[in-house]
Design goal:
- The complex is a heterotrimer.
- Chain A has helices spanning 46-53, 78-82, 100-110, 116-129, 145-157, 175-190, 202-208, 226-231, 236-245, and strands spanning 4-15, 20-31, 35-39, 61-66, 69-70, 85-88, 163-167, 194-198, 211-216, 219-224.
- Chain A is an alpha/beta fold.
- In chain A, helix 3 packs across helix 4, helix 3 runs parallel beside helix 5 and helix 5 runs parallel beside helix 6.
- Chain B has one domain (27-250): MetI-like fold, CATH 1.10.3720.
- Chain C is an alpha/beta fold.
- Chain C contains nine helices and 13 strands.
- Chain C has helices at 2-39, 75-87, 98-106, 121-124, 169-175, 194-202, 213-222, 247-262, 265-273, and strands at 52-57, 60-61, 65-68, 71-73, 90-95, 112-118, 127-129, 134-143, 162-165, 188-191, 208-212, 226-228, 234-243.
- In chain C, helix 5 (169-175) links the parallel strand 9 (162-165) and strand 10.
- In chain C, helix 2 (75-87) crosses helix 8.
- Classes of the chains: A alpha/beta, B mainly alpha, C alpha/beta.
- At the B-C interface, helix 8 of B face helix 1, helix 3, strand 10 and helix 6 of C.
């Protein structure tokens, strides 16, 4: 019996009073330790879906259970749950006015009330793992895109999250830097981190994903193991999508 | 040649006499000095009040802009309270920015604070409230100018709204608004020159008094203009230094 | 050193240019005047603009001058109208701040200043005055029930504030130091208009207002709860000011004033604005 971490039921996100349906009834679940990769054409709603999981997008309808708590309930303190959901953005969103170490320690020190020494020790450990320990004092503007994204990943890890959400983490990178970021993500997956990843990297999906979800027009069209999705696609839409991207 | 020299000597003597008449006779320089002190007092304290009001109003307005969607869904008391306060702030901005400051000053002096006998105090309150409206919009535009991703990054790490503002958005916004804020202070300094309308002896009024007593326009007006100019140049320089220091901290 | 010299040179150049410019404009004026003289032999040479007598006043000083709708009224306005008639000129009234009148007359912007203006030493240094046409009295207005009952109660120890209209006789007199007979700078609050000073008195911002008798009476009549102290604060003569070099106009106005006094017109005008019982304060 698998351990459910996130359970999504009937999730909808409408704009302009229902004229635009970014999400149109999503049911899904993510188990502990599972790596779920979400693919689909642009405008399919996959980013909106991911951003709904920590309520950066507020759903119009539906429920999201995280650790058996309905986080769409207005009376739930979403800040507590967001601490346990690390998020990595397409454009890194590092804080430009802080150096790397400060970027990584400000949240643990402010929110988790960790001591400066403790937070910095943890940050340095993580930086070492991604090979950036010598850049701790640098400012984001002095780093390459790939380095920034690696910092963004370990910044989220500093909060010791239960799940990591990746929103097209390699889309804004120069091709030669994509590899170093994917490498970090693979390591993370191999260590048992629960991950939800929106990406266009089909190679990564095939190699790392436990399950692949294909979305189009705000709906989940197909889901299954990478095997199922990439070698035996059932729907015409998935077939034509794969024909374009592979 | 002698003629030209004599002419210059005569002009110089005339200027010297006028200078003595305007500033030395009857210790009239004292008016300028006292007026300058009042101008500085009004500008400084009104500026502080303005920043305080500006921070409060800008916080309310940007909280409303950023949170109204989520609060509307939740509904209830908090949402209606924020909406109400936001409405009051908007009314404040409209009224203050929609009326001349000299009219506000007279309303304050003759109607609202009519029992106060301290003209400088009335001016501080009036110019403070006036400046607050402009500072609020400067802060708000600074907050809005910070990339939305910064806000999302803060929230996704678990910071609540206030913490995100406090630790992530405002430090970045402050840098972008600093030049505009400085301009607002310069404008405030110059605007205080209408304080004379309600009998306050500020710098402009001092020049005006000397003009009325000596019937000499050139000396007192140019002197007053030069003092304002020097103050503004000093203020601009100071902010330049501060800006450079802030920028250095980023590199 | 070079730098200092070049700065000095620049200052001198600018200065010289200013002087040249001002002397140029002066010659133009003179030329204009001489052509005027050629065109009409009579009196026009005395004014800057042909056929027009420009009078500067501060129309916030009833009953001497005030606005009635879009036009001006008051003792000074009517007297000036009569003078203009006598000189065969059209009267043009410029409403400016009181403190700007003498400067404007000096620079030739206005031909004369008629604004209930008192003759004093300071002013005589800058302009000439005609014969007096009325007597002005400075009085003290206080709130009814005020502790101030007579001039002796007016204190200059900082416990009392005095409201005045900026640059008027009341301002000048009360701003003198205690030794010179005033209350001292720091105890005088100067307002743009007499009405503002009275407003401040009513709301308790000042303890007394020192102002000319005639406007004082209008203010007390229009505002309940105010009274004028029985003893005058000062008494002095009102006259018209004219630029020092323009003696032709000075002589002509004096002549006109004498005629107006002789035929009783002056008295009629004053009686029209000031009730007969107060005549004694307006004879001259």
């Amino acid at each position: 019996m698998k351990d459910k971490l996130i359970e999504i039921t009937g999730l909808k996100k409408h704009y302009n009073g229902g004229a635009v349906k970014a999400l149109d009834g999503i049911n899904a679940e993510i188990d502990k330790g599972e790596v779920v990769v979400i693919i689909g054409p642009s405008g399919s709603g996959k980013s909106t879906f991911l951003r709904s999981l920590n309520l950066l997008e507020i759903p119009t309808e539906g429920r999201i259970l995280f650790d058996n708590v309905d986080i769409t309930d207005p009376n739930v303190n979403i800040n507590l749950h967001r601490q346990k959901m690390g998020m990595v953005f397409q454009h890194f969103n590092l804080f430009p006015n802080m150096n790397i170490l400060k970027n990584m320690t400000i949240a643990p020190m402010t929110i988790l009330k960790k001591s400066k020494a403790e937070a910095e020790e943890k940050a340095m450990q993580l930086l070492k793992r991604v090979g950036l320990e010598d850049r701790a004092e640098a400012y984001p503007s002095q780093l390459s895109g790939g380095q920034k994204q690696r910092v963004a990943i370990v910044r989220a890890l500093c909060m010791e999250p239960e799940v990591m959400l990746f929103d097209e983490p390699t889309s804004a990178l120069d091709p030669e830097m994509v590899g170093e970021v994917l490498e970090v993500m693979k390591t993370l997956a191999s260590e048992g981190m629960t991950m939800a990843v929106v990406t266009h990297e089909m190679g990564f999906a095939r190699e790392v994903a436990d399950r692949v979800i294909f979305m189009d027009e705000g709906k989940i069209i197909e889901e299954g193991t990478p095997e199922d999705i990439f070698t035996n696609p059932e729907s015409d839409r998935l077939k034509s999508f794969l024909a374009k991207v592979l | 040649m002698d003629g030209i020299q004599a002419w210059f000597v005569q002009q110089f003597t005339e200027l010297k006499d006028k200078f003595i008449l305007c500033f030395i006779d009857g210790d009239r320089w004292q008016w300028i000095f006292d007026g300058l002190l009042n101008t500085l007092k009004i500008t400084l304290f009104a500026g502080l009040i303005g920043v305080l009001i500006g921070i409060i109003v800008a916080s309310v307005r940007s909280s409303y802009d950023k949170n109204s969607e989520s609060l509307a869904l939740r509904g209830g008391f908090g949402y209606h309270l924020l909406r109400f306060i936001n409405g009051i702030c908007q009314l404040y901005l409209t009224v203050i920015r929609g009326t001349p400051v000299v009219v506000q000053l007279m309303i304050m002096y003759f109607i609202i604070l009519k029992s106060s006998t301290n003209g400088v105090f009335v001016a501080v309150i009036t110019f403070g409230i006036n400046s607050g409206a402009y500072v609020a919009e400067i802060f708000r535009s600074g907050i809005m100018a910070v990339d939305a991703g910064q806000f999302e990054a803060g929230r996704s790490l678990g910071f609540n709204y206030v913490q995100t503002m406090r630790y992530i958005i405002i430090p970045q916004a402050f840098k972008t608004v600093l030049p505009t804020l400085c301009n607002e202070f310069i404008a405030l300094l110059k605007e205080t020159s209408v304080a004379g309308y309600v009998g306050i002896s500020d710098l402009t009024k001092a020049g005006d008094l000397i003009r009325g007593r000596t019937f000499e326009a050139f000396m007192p007006l140019i002197a007053v203009a030069i003092i304002y100019l020097v103050l503004v140049v000093i203020l601009t320089r100071l902010v330049g230094v501060l800006e450079r220091r802030l920028r250095r901290s980023e590199r | 050193m070079k730098k200092v010299i070049s700065i000095l040179m620049a200052v001198v150049m600018v200065f010289a240019a200013c002087m040249l410019f001002s002397s140029c404009t002066k010659t133009e004026d003179e030329e204009e005047n001489s052509t005027n003289e050629a065109a009409s032999q009579e009196s026009t040479a005395m004014t800057a603009k042909e056929g027009v007598l420009v009078m500067a006043t501060n129309a916030a000083f009833p009953p001497y001058e005030y606005k009635e709708g879009d036009s001006f009224a008051g003792i000074d306005v009517e007297i000036a109208t009569k003078i203009a008639e006598k000189l065969g000129l059209t009267l043009e009234i410029q409403d400016v701040e009181f403190g700007s009148i003498i400067g404007g007359v000096q620079s030739g912007k206005f031909d004369m200043g008629v604004a209930g203006m008192t003759v004093n030493e300071e002013r005589l240094q800058s302009v000439n005055f005609t014969d007096s046409y009325a007597t002005g009295v400075q009085v003290v207005i206080v709130n009814e029930g005020s502790a101030i009952a007579s001039l002796d109660d007016l204190k200059a120890d900082g416990s009392m504030k005095y409201g005045v209209q900026q640059d008027t006789t009341g301002d000048i007199y009360s701003s003198y130091s205690v030794d010179e007979g005033g209350f001292g700078e720091e105890n005088v609050i100067r307002y743009k208009t007499g009405a503002d000073a009275v407003q401040a008195l009513k709301s308790g911002k000042v303890d007394a207002v020192i102002i000319d008798n005639e406007p004082a009476k209008s203010f007390v009549a229009a505002n309940e709860g105010l009274k004028i102290l029985d003893t005058e604060y000062a008494v002095e003569d009102y006259a018209i000011c004219i630029a020092k070099e323009n003696t032709a106009l000075l002589d002509a106005v004096n002549e006109a004033l004498a005629e107006l006094k002789a035929d009783g017109t002056l008295q009629q005008i004053i009686n029209k604005y000031i009730p007969a019982s107060l005549e004694d304060s307006s004879a001259a």
